[in-house]
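Researcher: Please generate the 3D structure of the following complex. Treat every line as part of one assembly.
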Amino acid sequence: MEKIGLFLGCNIPFNRPDIEYSIRFFLNELGVEIVEMEGAACCPAYGTMPSLGLLEWATASAWNLSIAEEKGVDMLTGCGSCYGVQNEANYYIHKHPEIKEKVNEILGKVGRKYDGTVKVWNVINFLYEKIGIDKLKQKIKYNLNGLKCGVQTGCHNLWPSKAFPSSEENTFFPTRMRQLIEAMGGVAPHYSTITDCCGMGALRSNAPEKSLALFKKKLDIIKEELNPDLNVIGCSSCLLQFDAGQSLLIEQKKIDYKIPALHLAQLTAIALGAEVDKATALASIPLNGVITKIKGGN
Amino acid sequence: MKKTGKPACEICKKGIPPKGIQGCPADAIKFEDKDEYVNLKVGAVIIATGFKPMAKTHFKEYSPHSPDVITSMEFERILSATGPTGGELKRPSDGTKPKTIAMISCVGSRDERYHSYCSKVCCMYMLKHARILKEKYPDIKLYLFFIDVRTAGKDFEEFYVYTRELGVKVIKGGRVSAVDVKPNGKLRVRAFDSDLCSPVELEADLVVLATAIEPPDGVDEMGRMFSATCGREGFLREVHTKLYPVETSARGVFIAGCVQGPKDIPESIAQSRAAASAAAALIIPGKIKFEAIVSEVDRDKCSSCGVCVPLCPYTAIRIEEYKGKEKAYIEPALCAGCGVCASACPSKAITFHGFTTEQILAQIDALTEA
Amino acid sequence: MEEGGVNVIDLTQADESFVKELEALGADELRECIQCGKCGATCPMALAGLEFFIKRLVHAANLGLREVLLDDSSVWGCQSCNRCVEICPMDIKPYEVIQAIRRAAVKVESCPANTYEGLRNLYRFGHAVFPKGFEERRKKAGLPEKPPTALSFEDLRKKYQEILRNTILEEIAPFPLD
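Model: Done. Output below.
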């Protein structure tokens, strides 16, 4: 049986634990053994240790990576930042032997070390490459019944592609999530701003108005070009923007429509038969129509 | 050829002559002709094999999968009266006439991932395309995206200003970030406009990429065949940028045009004339002046080991019979005086004139004495 | 620019040592930028209308405009989307320039307060993002109150903290590390 270290990060376990439930559920259903990453910390977020220094970044990430290495597993994360930060750290550690040496000097003080053997996967690439479209197709219990989905892969899941263990053929025209959704019976057309930033992240923390304005532009184009039943998101940070962020736009009367949003892990879990109450426990935009459509036919 | 005033029959365009027509009515084409190898003995060669325009497929951020994202070379054909549309402006996807066209410069040029050099001609031919279009279709909207507009050349700046006067819009600084396809088939072009100090976006019907001028395929192989070397970017290299601009490291082999590096038509013509003159200067006297600094084999000392033959970068050394034995011979007309053979010869049979062992040792002595 | 001041940047105040400092902080290919502008139109900072965004930051950094850059907080709004790194034709890794400016800014305590909040949470709990009420949210999703991360294992958290104390955090943290 395949094994994977489940890297939780911060936003998933504390803000959207329904994604954590969903990842755990789909891994079980697909026969992947979950290895708990006891003691894992923040990835660390771009604005923290990475903003202090390259060594600081590499060291804090290596703490997490060394836990997976000790257990002999790769890591899986549902958060784009965790995916980007740790893959980039891995890349620096490989590229700069002098940094690797210093990192291990520091890790050594608490009896740890990191050789650099761990790969970090996101939900998209894990499902696409490690599980595969065919197996996913076989395993689903609820067909998406033509549910029309707008896709948001998320910047950190796309770039810098050279630091990642696996990548889209054209990162400016991503198709992996679309293929996965279509394998589950949904419809996921391309739209012109598919790779645009949703505005979540440092911009949201430091300039919330501007962040939401950026998001509104993207959402308006999704509405205009696709008018989907659901937005499906590959990154937990983007999901916060697409769900709670959208609620803010509605509250501020900046938009007059509602598009529910789910993380790809949540949608996959639901299609594999997860308890909807748990898998979508923290969604702020109501999902009734979406669930009815999925559960309506079998 | 005599001009008849009749329209061209265009039979040749259809390839093999259709039934009932016996070849070209003007007898201008030999349809039965076949590829053949022709052996020629020549005194000089001018290599002028041109360039290759870069394909659009590399530029994933510019939606290369869209049929309405084309290269400038393809656009040139669309504008041409003898091109696939008969000179009618049509976009490839649906044959409609584009109302808004975006042209993008420096696609693959000035780009460390592909070619670090400037392709030199793109700024001007983009302006040329714009001028042709604007004069023919005054209502068409044209947006030209540049990093900066390079118009160094006689009358070029005037051409640029004239094109601007026609109403062509120029965006600088400037390299396009993204081209995305909208569901209605339009293309969203996004760039930074340094003059507006703002990101800009444009909905275009057609996007034209001024892709880089690349060395032609197989140029390195051809260069090796002639003992001419290629530079880092893959173009054939001249001996000296200023003093020997058409000569290569192989004597008697000259270069002209884009095989040496990107250049426009006037420059290519000037260079090809220079190459022709240099070749003529070599051939016409009927005799060749040897360089004084060449290597020579003392054939009585030569052990016939043959080490020197493959080492010579100018294929100047051959083994030939001397006093009933195979010995090395250096052709002074080909020797460029690099000295590789002299330093490699195990029998010390090769003298490098001007740099003999005695001369070099004497120099060392003189230096070390001080 | 000061309120009511004259809109001019004095290039004689530019400081070449700042360029070198940034290079040492990770922006090692900064000087290769030819200002082609490709990063400018898809940079979220530019689209959101921040005063400084990637193209402008790289240029200002190359000029050595230390005061101008350290007085402005735009760098902290960078999304780290890395699109600039993916498309930069000169491969200067523009995002590394942003991080280098942040690193220089932190040294002179010129960063927004929430930067320290993230670092404090990271040190104390092992998580930079640590919102209140998570126990309730986890319960709703049918999960135990605490995730099996550094938060749940005091001994491992202490080790993690020791690692952090061995970095520059020890010098710059405006909060107690104990």
